[in-house]
Amino acid sequence: MNVSFIEDEPLNTVIVDSSNGQPLYEVTTPWKLFGRTTTIRRLTPGTVSGQGEVIAQVRSAWGSGANITIYGSTMDVKDWLRKGGIFTSSRVLTANDGKTYKWRRSSGKLNLKATGSNVEVAQSHQSKSGWFGTPRKMNIDIAPHGMHFRDIIVISFIILEQERREARRSSNAASLAATSSAAPSSC
User: Fold this and answer.
1) Alpha-carbon distance 150 to 145, whole Å?
2) CA 148 to CA 153: how far, in whole Å?
3) What's the rounded Cα separation, in Å, for the pair 175 and 181?
4) pTM value?
C-alpha cells in the first residue's frame, strides 16, 4: 500500500491511500509560540475533519523533550523511538506485534526493516516539485507484512520527517549566520 501526504507539511496534512484517494489520517498542529501538540487521527469513510479517532498526540515544549501519547499510553518520544546506537542516526521502535523495527535514512529515503532482517517493511519518498520530472507528493510504501502496524509506521515517520526538517532548518540558519559573520564589513 502506498500512502501520500496531501500537503508537504508532516504536522498539518491529510494522508490518503494513493490508489483511491481515500483519507486515512488527519494530522493537525495548532500554531503556538512555545510548545505544540500534534494530533494524529485515523479516519474512516465518511469521517469529517477533526472527527476521527485520536491514535496519537505528540507534545513538545521549548527546552525539553517531546512526549507521545499513543493508544492511551504516554512516554518520552526518545524512549518510544530509540536511537539505534551511538554512531548511527537509525531509530528503533517496538510495534504492537512485540517485534522491533529499525528506521534508517539512505539516499534521502527512510527505510524500515525488522531488526536483524533485510526485509523492507516500509520506505518513504520525498516530494518533488516536478521541475525536472514528474511531480510527486511525499509518500510511504508499506509492504503487506507491515500493514498490521500501519498506524505505528505513519506516526513514527511523521516524527522522523519533522526532526529531519528541523535539523535542516537549524543547519541552514547556522550556515547563514556563519556566512554573514565572515563577510567583510563595508565602512
Assistant:
1) 10
2) 10
3) 10
4) 0.86
Angle at 64 (CA atoms; ends 61, 68), nearest 5 degrees: 65
Q: Where are the alpha helices (DSSP H) in 8-130?
A: 77-80
Tens-place pLDDT, residues 62-91: 656 899 999 999 999 999 999 988 888 899
Cell numbers representing residue 173 in the block: 540558519
Q: Any idea what the Cα angle at residue 128 is, between residues 126 and 134, rounded to 5°?
A: 125
Residue 33 DSSP code: S
Angle at 108 between CA 93 and CA 21, to 5 degrees: 75
Report helix, strand or coil for 21. Answer: coil
Give Cα separations from 172 to 89, 118, 158, 183 (angstroms): 19, 34, 21, 16
* DSSP character at residue 54: E
Contact 1, 17 (CB under 8 A): yes
Strands 23-28 and 13-17, how do they pair?
antiparallel
**What mean pLDDT comes out for the span 117-145?**
86
Short-list 136, 138, 157, CA closest to 146: 157
